[in-house]
Amino acid sequence: LTPVFQKAFPSSFKSLDVVSFRNGSIINVIDVSFGSTSAPNSTQIANALINAASTVVGFDIEGSSIGVNGIFSSGVRQEISLVTASCLCLLSWILSNQQ
After folding, report:
1. pLDDT at 30
2. What value does the mean pLDDT take over residues 74-88?
3. Which segments of 9-59 does DSSP mark as H helices, in order?
4. What is the dihedral sign for C-alpha 6, 1, 55, 72?
């Protein structure tokens, strides 16, 4: 995961240390160190892992199981274009007026 954090936070990432693995599972605990005043927040760190999930090889990153400082990620990206949102609103309005 070091390359993931180096790419996502090139000016602040310092190191990554594996602290522990939970017995009988694939859950691990890591300490990630940042060395500047512009260190990322918990959401940015979780998003870096979620974004890397499709490119990391050798193991799977379960987006819904990412916890940063005790705050767990939903693992769901919530990006939608203005056009898509507008079309969904229009479709909803049309369908609700057909009753």
Report:
1. 84
2. 63
3. 42-52
4. negative
- Residue 58, sorted as left (phi over 0), alpha (psi -120 to 50) or beta, turns out to be left
- pLDDT over threshold 80, residue 25: no
Phi–psi pair at 81, nearest 5 degrees: -80, 160
How far apart CA 88 and CA 95 sit, in angstroms, is: 11
Indicate whether 96 pLDDT > 50: yes
Cα four-point dihedral sign 55, 8, 6, 25: negative
Going by C-beta distance under 8 Å and a sequence separation of 6 or more, which residues neighbour residue 75? Answer: 50, 62, 63, 64, 65, 66
Residue 21 in tokens:
């693995």
pTM of the model: 0.61
